Amino acid sequence: MYKNKLSEIDSLKSKIDVYRPLTPDILKQIQEYYKIGLTYSSNALEGNSLDLAETKVVIEDGLTINGKPMRDHLEAIGHADAFNELLTLAKSDLITEENIKYLHKLFYIKIDSDNAGVYRQKPVIVTGADIDFPRPAELAGKMHDFVASIPEMKQKLHPVELAAMVHGIFVNIHPFIDGNGRVARLLMNLILLQTGYNITIIPPVVRADYIRALQETNRNNFQPFINFVSEMVYEAQKEYLKILEKLKV
Question: For the chain, what is the domain count?
Fold first, then answer.
């Protein structure tokens, strides 16, 4: 059972803030570290076969890994491109539909250019699951309402709660033909960065817990997922502090 860690998170954030602002060189090192880590973990959660070292080689050296599907390489490259855009978007405090479409386009364009950044035209069918995703005709309205609700939620919720809610609501809309989980985790991290928190990675080892908590959001029960995300943020903060101390900021 995952516990709500918001008070512990606020305490650790105070310790992290002592190190800020970071020098451009240190900031770049940290961003490159998380680009590889988030790309690997987010893709691995969806079944990508590249390990962390292979992901690094693909992104940084542009090499292909023998025996690995080309799509896995394209997912790594696309996610890294979307991560770079995430860092740009984090300089603003807004999230628009165009931002979301562009993140998806960057991730997906090398895989399927026709559907990159475009809302799906077909219904989602999930065999054996009690999930009712919006029909294609409803997507434009659902996404408009979702994006419009973010500023109001921002006023009411702790930033980590907001990040979890945005992730959960977006996944339940499922606006794209594929890549919704990747974009949801990018949006979660965009909220975190915009509100002064650090990148949070969901390790593949907790995939079953992640999916279980996320499935509860489809039944409008967000607390298990908020608790789960709060523990992921808490663990990410502890790692981030170790990185800052190692780099002797």
Answer: 1
pLDDT at 132: 82
Residue 174 within a domain = yes
Q: Which residues of the chain have pLDDT under 70?
A: 127-130, 249
Position 39, amino acid = T
Question: Would you state the pLDDT for residue 125?
Answer: 79
53 lies in some domain = yes
Which CATH number is 213's domain given?
A: 1.10.3290.10
Q: Which of 79, 104, 167, 174 is catalytic?
A: 174
pLDDT tens track for 195-209: 999 999 999 999 999
Long-range contacts from 166-171, C-beta under 8 angstroms, 24+ separation: 166/95, 166/191, 167/214, 167/225, 167/229, 168/214, 168/217, 168/222, 168/225, 169/217, 170/100, 170/146, 171/214, 171/217
What is the 3-class SS of 150-187, one letter each residue? HHHHHHHCCHHHHHHHHHHHHHHHCCCCCCHHHHHHHH
Residue 1: inside a domain = no
Judge whether 143 and 176 are in contact, CB under 8 Å.
no
Domain-located, residue 67: yes
Residue range of the domain that includes 92: 6-246
Residue 73 annotated among the catalytic residues of the structure? no
Quick one: pLDDT at residue 247?
86
